[in-house]
Amino acid sequence: MATLITVANTVNAPAEKVWEYWNNPDHVTRWNAASPDWHTPVAFNDLKPGGKFNYRMEAKDGSFGFDFGGVYDVVEQNKRIAYTMGDNRKVNTLFTPTPEGIHVETTFEAEDTHSLEQQQAGWQSILDNFKNYTEKQ
């Protein structure tokens, strides 16, 4: 059985805004990076069960890059997104209303290349960037 990692944060914004900023490629390209020296220059998202997404993630200096993508298994507007990545790992994201805003929680199957701590830190950093971007817009 795969090891699961969970990252979470609460975004102080309405559910509709959180959903839009999480899924609209124009917004994804502005927040989807684990560190300031990385970016997502191109994003594609066909948000529906069976639909595909692809986010091109690159070092800003051009030294390295990769495609992060997959196929949606479940799409419940403003509530849940589940997908299978290109390497067949599963990801589930929940959007739960709280008095403080929308609690965004992503659980994903770990891969074998990077340590669990590195994976959790990277995904948490991206989620933190999302929170900061969404709250400032």
TrEMBL record:
<protein>
    <submittedName>
        <fullName>Polyketide cyclase</fullName>
    </submittedName>
</protein>
<feature type="domain" description="Activator of Hsp90 ATPase homologue 1/2-like C-terminal">
    <location>
        <begin position="12"/>
        <end position="134"/>
    </location>
</feature>
<dbReference type="InterPro" id="IPR023393">
    <property type="entry name" value="START-like_dom_sf"/>
</dbReference>
<dbReference type="Pfam" id="PF08327">
    <property type="entry name" value="AHSA1"/>
</dbReference>
<comment type="similarity">
    <text>Belongs to the AHA1 family.</text>
</comment>
<dbReference type="InterPro" id="IPR013538">
    <property type="entry name" value="ASHA1/2-like_C"/>
</dbReference>
